[in-house]
Amino acid sequence: MRRWNGWGDDTLSVPLPAGALEWLAARAGAASPVPDASLAQALAAVPPSRLPPHRLVRTDALERLLHARGQSLPDWIALRGGRIERFPDGVARPSSEEEVRALLHYAAQTDARLIPYGGGTSVVGHVNPGAEPTLTVNLRGLNRLRRLDAESRLASFGAGAAGPEIEAALRARGFTLGHYPQSFEYSTLGGWVATRSAGQESLGYGRIEQLFAGGRLETPAGRLALPCVPASAAGPDLRALVLGSEGRLGIVTEATVRIAPLPERQTVTAVFFPAWSAGLAAAREIAQATLPLTMLRLSHPAETETTLALAGDSRGLRLLRRMIELRGLGEGRCLLLAGAAGGGPRVRRARGELLALARRHGGVRVTDAFGRRWRGTRFRAPYLRNALWEHGYALDALETALPWARVPALVEAVERALREAAATFGERLHVFTHLSHLYPTGSSVYTTYLFRVAVDPDETLARWRACKRAASEAIVAAGGTISHQHGVGLDHQPYLAAEKGELGVAALQALCRQFDPRGVMNPGKLVE
Amino acid sequence: MRRWNGWGDDTLSVPLPAGALEWLAARAGAASPVPDASLAQALAAVPPSRLPPHRLVRTDALERLLHARGQSLPDWIALRGGRIERFPDGVARPSSEEEVRALLHYAAQTDARLIPYGGGTSVVGHVNPGAEPTLTVNLRGLNRLRRLDAESRLASFGAGAAGPEIEAALRARGFTLGHYPQSFEYSTLGGWVATRSAGQESLGYGRIEQLFAGGRLETPAGRLALPCVPASAAGPDLRALVLGSEGRLGIVTEATVRIAPLPERQTVTAVFFPAWSAGLAAAREIAQATLPLTMLRLSHPAETETTLALAGDSRGLRLLRRMIELRGLGEGRCLLLAGAAGGGPRVRRARGELLALARRHGGVRVTDAFGRRWRGTRFRAPYLRNALWEHGYALDALETALPWARVPALVEAVERALREAAATFGERLHVFTHLSHLYPTGSSVYTTYLFRVAVDPDETLARWRACKRAASEAIVAAGGTISHQHGVGLDHQPYLAAEKGELGVAALQALCRQFDPRGVMNPGKLVE
């Protein structure tokens, strides 16, 4: 079962390693657990449904509670604090396009709002209902592989297919999609398309924008079919309207994706650099050398230390620490992880070129066990959020992307803005940053911060608000995008006009009116 | 000077090689020259301007004639036959964004239509005026490099910069854009963006969609500024609205592009395959192997023979023919050209992997002189259109793209449709095809056809119409895009709804209304 008020499978816990709490206490203050609201309390708060009955619509309290919120920190604060406030009035789980169309018809007749729902893993409020009567449409029933054209390397799935279902269906036929966002185990193809998702291996396989070749969108104004051609000059690419539409234009029901052969070999190489400036210069050169790598990820020194501290205290790790210190890499060191995949010779060559570039900047390669460990546990990392919360720490992350020339100043500005915001409410943050997706022209910047949960949920929410606002303003001031991979939803909406311009926002609103004249699709998200 | 009624520089002629006319006569019938209208006749047909005076607007007959048409075959028929019919009422050559805005203001006050004009190389009617009073805005005055961020590999140009200006400015700083459409010598950055241009080396450098990182659009509703970030999940990507907008939303005045270091070495390898099926299989495997190549181009047997026939009869070519025949490559052979660029080791490796794949399909590599010749003369090829017309032959090309599994049937269907159309007007076509842009999931298909010019321009136009309609219907029936690289303009508009759907066309119309409420921007192009 999914946890109703946290991340992941409720039979799986990832405890903090020994010493981690002391380490965090020295950085963000000693914390104590804050009691959570119980499931019974949360269920008791679900009000009667305002929707008339329909054969596809369930209105029981548990189903409505389970679809009330996503995975943002405000969502957690509401769920853990028992202050959920708004619930969908009903939940439908269609299993065909015809049922999706029936639900659009039902919404039109009943004046209900519709929220498309995939894995419920949004961290920016994409699936939260507004004040109006709302039907949440869970698309997990549309999860099958529908067609596979091996010659053209194209596969069509129902949009509700989750990451593991997609990879299992493709693996059986010798292919992979290669899209691994951290939410991979739960998030869905339709959700990836609607939010412009970026997987951890986007360097090799592409973001969902590059992988999404065509598909279908059911809208209040009818069906939009996006043909699947390798490229076209026939006017604006309508796929781009659907990518990032966040449920405002309609419901993605099918997506055709570009697939790749299963790689013979996959590696993750770990390299330590003596300083941030050296790591940054190397990472940029490697990204600009367009080597056949699938992933690049560079941790800032504070994140590097956090990774080492939270990795536990195994004999292997102690040896690793001693080894890199003997090589002169002490305070200020930073960690680069680089993934490669494909045939043996290609992987060897990519690693060889990578290491040659890294060495020119003082990079020291460490054992592959380090990279293997990252790869093996990457979908376990979000479980640490549960453990941290249970010890009294709230964890949030925010991200942007911008040209290389502005990356170093932005990293400093965001971390400073967060620390200054925390000072206003008398707390210390532990904050750390990595570059998660590297491009020839720039990089994403992913900053994680951790602070103590207050006893009063409203106070915890106020702390988050102060941090989020300060960091978002720093991002806007630096000309970064307000989101590289999480989307807009509710939380980033105040900053969208700075990026798109008033005219750009008006254009998006015109598109919403065109596809959804009565404004029933996921209102309040993306644009007003 | 540009030719007023044909391709290119009027001091440059590329004559047909010896024997070419006999070779063509055997395939499309013997032709005789048809006299063209003179420049004096064409100028005499320019009617008085309907526009009120403005300091930026020229209304002399020559300027208006020179901006009346593009380079489509219907444009040629009109220009050569002296049946131009519609001219812009004025031509402005702004040299700043402020002047562009002044022209938008002038159009609003005078109810004039505006046509943005770059190099005038459209082959689908993008720049042709309609019936209403029209001002053509020639953007060649906005042709400077404005900013270059070497660290982030981004360069901003005025949108009127033509290919050679862009490459010269970048070359001086050690960079290249790598965008080489056949119109490279005249077409402009803004035109590439507005028509979703694909350069011959798009395999390595990307189509303009991948190169266009941000920019500015001046619209009747105000300025749309597109920020330049490496990637974003902040809602739909507004660059995609501008890419392919064909002047309907506004005027692109500045574009920031992703640049690459100048390659140390560039090669074009030529390989002959014994049959189309072998060449096709090899080309697909090479495209799917994602080697670091910059270009792949596979000619169908009829195009291969045409290339050899029109390449002339030098001693080198005779040796080449004898060599490939000795290797058993006779009738049905087809030619693959593959470009590579970069450092020496990368180029060597790419060529090595390419040739290993090619050999598995019976490919025979020939001298690099063949590839060098293609590279050296690639922008001379369109001049052959002049020579052919002057001998009484009209030449046109059309193109699409579709998944690999449907490529072979589409090639046959388009060629058959063209031959059958020609039969209805009692002519034989010479028709030949190549795959010009290859992708892992599919390929573009580029078909060239040649027929005799009739004495009556209306009859020549009717011949073109019959051919174009038949081929376009075959493309639509096969599910190909109506244009892979030429755009929609006037000529492809009847087929756009089949591809975009009614709802998709309505969305484009909604965007036009949003940016251009009074419908003054390039009316009639792209969508009605």
Index terms:
homodimer, alpha+beta, seven-stranded antiparallel β-sheet, five-stranded antiparallel β-sheet, 38% helix
Characterise this structure.
The structure is a homodimer of 528-residue chains. The first copy, chain A, has 528 residues and is of the alpha+beta class. The first copy, chain A, has helices spanning 20-28, 39-44, 61-66, 73-81, 97-110, 163-171, 189-195, 202-205, 208-211, 239-242, 276-288, 301-310, 315-326, 344-359, 368-377, 383-390, 407-424, 457-477, 496-515, and strands at residues 57-58, 90-92, 113-117, 134-138, 145-149, 154-158, 175-176, 212-219, 222-226, 251-258, 260-261, 265-273, 293-299, 334-342, 364-365, 393-403, 430-435, 442-452. In chain A, the strands form four sheets. Chain A has a seven-stranded antiparallel β-sheet, sandwiched between helices. In chain A, 57% of the residues are buried. Chains A and B meet through strand 9, helix 10, strand 16, strand 18 and helix 19 of A and strand 9, helix 10, strand 16, strand 19 and helix 19 of B.
